[in-house]
């Protein structure tokens, strides 16, 4: 009788939970208000923060974090991020991420075990708007009659795609691909990872600077940014090797990028069909709704390539719909279309291999050790050298890989190089990434390794 009563109480409590989220185009103050509400409703698993730079017009760049221990990087817990509204007139991604934050909070409070496990094992960062000034301009142009008429009479007026300085933020990042090719011309053995040295080479926008500092200060493993005007999952490289307008330009991680893109496209009811938005170049039927960025059209100075060449993170650009600023009446349906892709893509941060790299003698973590793929599944035998991932100051590494057998090379300054073979199993949410802790012998070291275990109690 008591057990039955407890079950009834649990069901009743869950049924009383109702989200107050309303599908609409939230203005910038309403975005902050919604994120604040979500934070207060899920205080134990969220943190609300803004980046160190505001937009041109002084608006905050707000992020909500979900984690079992908000505000703390826990050892071997991967970091994940979603960013939207980089182009201010592309608004669907902004509303999808706002609803995603609401959904994570609601599902956690309702006791959904899968949501609870995702939050407990992942540090998730969600930024609904990178370009709040652009959103203001786009909304004014769309709904203010006088501005709408002015737009057609003055073609120079921004529609909100750019920021308040009229700069396209997805062309404003340092061109690391050019730097990569200059290095490879000098030596084909050049390391093509973490190419950003802090020098942007020119003045950049505050929104771009904020994202650069964010990307390079947190050890993100996987991320995506959301655009509109097409329906496709786009993966690096975005820029072409020879400067041509369109040329298929694969990265060393071509195989895993294709797989990750398919995770999003295949879970979307229309994207995997290769729906065209009316442009000749938008035919993605043969690829199942995914595309190499440069094969579609070149983008120089984009955030996607910057993520890949400046950090450990694999980043995709998801085009979520033909209409950049869809009617509010369509937002609920678009949420249903994207809910599963958004969730399944987040889970893939746990795909592949992870572990610590440590000193074989002292058992201390090794910072900036490099983990490279020498050989493995089809797609990793490219002309480019592998793009290595590096360890954090805790000695952690994550490497998203498809299933198969791989040969890895692990190097660090002052240590003997190790070659190891690993087997990556099929992805499983319960199992997560394969664990492989790696010890490196200091050069010219004598004696036997000290007994001990891989440290797991570091704090950052």
Automatic annotation (TrEMBL):
Residues 1-16 form the signal peptide. One of its GO terms (biological process) is peptide metabolic process. Residues 24-349 form the Peptidase M14 domain. SUPFAM superfamilies: Carboxypeptidase regulatory domain-like, Zn-dependent exopeptidases. Its cofactor is Zn(2+). InterPro entries: CarboxyPept-like_regulatory, CARBOXYPEPT_ZN_1, CARBOXYPEPT_ZN_2, Peptidase_M14, Peptidase_M14_domain. GO terms for molecular function: metallocarboxypeptidase activity; zinc ion binding. It holds the Pfam family Peptidase_M14. PROSITE patterns: CARBOXYPEPT_ZN_1 (PS00132), CARBOXYPEPT_ZN_2 (PS00133), PEPTIDASE_M14 (PS52035). The active site is at residue 319. Residues 433-460 are annotated as: Disordered. The keyword tRNA processing does not apply. Keywords: Carboxypeptidase, Glycoprotein, Hydrolase, Metal-binding, Protease, Signal, Zinc. GO terms for cellular component: extracellular space. Belongs to the peptidase M14 family. This is Carboxypeptidase E-like. It comes from Galendromus occidentalis (western predatory mite).
């Amino acid at each position: 009788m008591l057990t039955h009563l407890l079950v009834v109480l649990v069901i009743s409590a869950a049924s009383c939970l109702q989200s107050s989220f309303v599908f609409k185009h939230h203005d910038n103050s309403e975005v902050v208000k919604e994120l604040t509400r979500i934070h207060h409703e899920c205080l134990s698993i969220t943190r609300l923060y803004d980046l160190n730079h505001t937009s041109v017009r002084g608006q905050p760049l707000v992020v909500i974090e979900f984690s079992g221990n908000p505000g703390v990087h826990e050892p071997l817990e991967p970091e994940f991020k979603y960013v939207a509204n980089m182009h201010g007139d592309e608004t669907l991604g902004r509303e999808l991420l706002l609803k995603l934050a609401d959904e994570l909070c609601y599902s956690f409070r309702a006791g959904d075990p899968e949501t609870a496990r995702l939050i407990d094992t992942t540090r998730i960062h969600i930024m609904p708007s990178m370009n709040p000034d652009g959103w203001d301009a786009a909304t004014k142009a769309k709904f203010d009659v006088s501005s709408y008429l002015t737009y057609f009479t003055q073609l120079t007026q921004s529609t909100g795609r750019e920021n308040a300085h009229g700069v396209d933020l997805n062309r404003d990042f340092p061109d690391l691909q050019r730097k990569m090719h200059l290095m490879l011309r000098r030596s084909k053995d050049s390391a093509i990872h973490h190419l950003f040295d802090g020098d942007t080479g020119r003045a950049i926008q505050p929104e771009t600077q904020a994202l650069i500092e964010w990307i390079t200060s947190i050890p993100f493993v996987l991320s995506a940014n959301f655009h509109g005007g097409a329906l496709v999952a786009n993966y690096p490289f975005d820029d072409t090797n020879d400067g041509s307008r369109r040329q298929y330009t694969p990265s060393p991680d071509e195989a895993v990028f294709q797989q990750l893109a398919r995770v999003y496209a295949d879970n979307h009811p229309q994207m995997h069909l290769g729906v065209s938005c009316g442009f000749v170049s938008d035919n993605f039927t043969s690829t199942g709704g995914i595309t190499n960025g440069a094969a579609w059209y070149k983008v120089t100075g984009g955030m996607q390539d910057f993520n890949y060449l400046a950090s450990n993170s694999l980043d995709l650009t998801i085009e979520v719909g033909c209409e950049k600023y869809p009617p509010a009446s369509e937002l609920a349906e678009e949420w249903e279309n994207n809910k599963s892709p958004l969730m399944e893509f987040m889970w893939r941060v746990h795909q592949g291999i992870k572990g610590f790299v440590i000193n074989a003698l002292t058992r201390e973590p090794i910072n900036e050790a490099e983990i490279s793929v020498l050989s493995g599944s089809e797609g990793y035998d490219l002309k480019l050298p592998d793009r290595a991932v590096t360890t954090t100051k805790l000695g952690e590494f994550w490497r998203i890989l498809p299933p198969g057998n791989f040969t890895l090379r692990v190097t660090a300054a002052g240590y003997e190089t190790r070659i190891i073979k690993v087997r990556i199993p099929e992805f499983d949410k319960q199992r997560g990434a394969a664990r492989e802790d790696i010890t490196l012998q200091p050069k010219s070291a004598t004696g036997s390794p000290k007994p001990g275990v891989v440290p797991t109690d570091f704090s950052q």
